């Protein structure tokens, strides 16, 4: 081992002797490019004082001349320096491999594989450790609904292994920011900070670059991180969204200590033959050093890059190459490689286990001999989990582990590391501390303050607002056992829908597969699916309703339940009723009468006349007439049978109709969980706020039969459950009296008389 170290010291000395060659070259080029303090014009978007056509032609000619001059000077200087050291010409043409010292971080892939065989630790000395509480900075570009889902799996894999505070820098579009801001706010993971940067504001920086890659314009934004991220941020790990970590990210952060000289980029060699240009006839990739480098995992020394004027460097390279290449094929990766081709001293080559690239026909299998060798897995094929690889089943299972892993288990403290004060977390702890844990209803009261991790818009969502401001969104909530109702509701209601789904992480993936396999659901883009992740022992029904209500895009909403099918044409009928009854300027709650069937197979009535006929035959019934008559009796079904115009009804105790209201109506009270009084309390509050209840004469909905929910079973079998529900009702009524004063006394009286 001692002999190996001595040999490496000699090797290091030789490497250091060679190091000044590219460094002097770079300094010379840099000085030549910006002599007299006047930088070369880099952007084709810069305005010129002459006519646009003449200016563009003149700029291109001068740029081409300058590029040729710089390249010739570069060639001569390298030749002179190489001859001075007795080494022969260093310049080579084409994308052929070059061998560099591993100590400089640019060793070839054979050397790296030798390092893996030696046990992934070829250093003589101990690798510099990352301080226990040192914050690790991670940057990710994320845009859209699908990428937002992918980021969650990546973050889970990082959180699972991490032992350090993390600071995520998310370059996100408006969609991803809304989704991920809510997710992290409700996730409440200790020692994790999130900052967002507006990706849409960065579009102008890279929009001039034609890009054929499926990532689109967002696939170019890693190029501008030196400008985008805070000026005091010195280093950052940049990750693609399709990355899975199999080790502590601190190990990768420690690699920054190995950078030497002018090295500012840490990259893994590309494991496909793309940049060798031999994949098919006339295949012409962008220039690259050897096999090129993959940018799925990048270590960026931001402070040095800024001093090197990285922004001007990559722009000059991109403009020069685009003259012949016309567009990028692999987005930012093409431009990074073109820059490295001209400036190889910039790169520290990471061992390939830091980016095991699972594309078809890659050399990824040479990056590991054992499971313990794996560090980072990169699903960089468009096929993702369907990629061809000898060990793909192992990789797929590892990915699915984090995909379905309970994210709540990652809310663990980093002991010994001070964390930033979180106002929301402190308020939550204060509220919980005020509860009496000996109270028999403690779990009920605690649920009111539970923060459930929430992933908004789990699937792609598109909505075009109606020009007449009469649009209505159907609002409902469900759990996994009601998933089969979704297709039927979508067939009955063509308008926008907002659904809150109470699922575990594993169930969320089952739902995703179910939805993606359904032609009905995939054909509807105006349905917002919001996942509220399971936590605690109760079904938070009113929290779910509030989540669905909060994320509607229409002025009105139809507050329904998932096991009801609206009549055909109800969407258009409600839009007309909203206008006719002037809902925009009056506080009205429009009641849709509710019916039920005990038959699992029902010929759904296509009109009110057909429904009345089925009522008379006993095929349909007014909703809950045989168990909970008071819930819908005030609708006055006898009057509805012959009504042709809307009619007003008065509030009565235990009234819980399904209503259409403006989007600014009060939320549901979160103290009511599981079964019992969750809708009753909401209708009572609408009445307290002087909403007028109006029954629609030609509207109806039908409840479809299903097995009893777990919560109603608990209500029926657990005496303490019923006692706590009664206690919560009384407390709610007292709160109503305090809030609404004398007018709310009728609710106490009505309850006592019922």
Summed up:
By secondary structure, the protein is α/β, with parallel strands linked by helices. Among the domains are: 199-410, Spore Coat Polysaccharide Biosynthesis Protein SpsA, Chain A (Alpha-Beta Complex), CATH 3.90.550.10; 454-747, Spore Coat Polysaccharide Biosynthesis Protein SpsA, Chain A (Alpha-Beta Complex).
Q: What is the β-strand count?
A: 23
Q: What structural category arises from helix and sheet content?
A: alpha/beta
What general outline do the C-alpha atoms trace? elongated
Give the neighbour order of strands across the main sheet. Answer: 11-14-13-12-15-21-17-22-20
Our Rg estimate from Cα atoms comes to 32 Å
The amount of helix comes to 25-40%
Low-confidence stretches: 1-6, 8-14, 16-56, 81-125
- Average pLDDT, all residues: 83
Number of helices: 25
Q: Major β-sheet, in short?
A: 9 strands, mixed
Tell me, what is the CATH class of the domain at 454-747? Answer: Alpha Beta
Topology-level CATH name of the domain at 454-747: Spore Coat Polysaccharide Biosynthesis Protein SpsA, Chain A
Span between termini: 89 Å
Task: Estimate the strand proportion.
Answer: 5-15%
Task: Write out the CATH superfamily name of the domain at 454-747.
Answer: Spore Coat Polysaccharide Biosynthesis Protein SpsA, Chain A
Oligomeric description of these chains:
single chain
Question: What does it look like?
Answer:
The chain has 754 residues and is of the alpha/beta class. Among the domains are: 199-410, Spore Coat Polysaccharide Biosynthesis Protein SpsA, Chain A (Alpha-Beta Complex), CATH 3.90.550.10; 454-747, Spore Coat Polysaccharide Biosynthesis Protein SpsA, Chain A (Alpha-Beta Complex). It contains 25 helices and 23 strands. A nine-stranded mixed sheet has the order 11-14-13-12-15-21-17-22-20. It is elongated and about 95 Å long. Residues 1-6, 8-14, 16-56 and 81-125 have low confidence and may be disordered. It is found in: Golgi apparatus membrane. Residues 83-108 are annotated as: Disordered. The chain crosses the membrane at residues 12-31. Pathway: Protein modification; protein glycosylation.
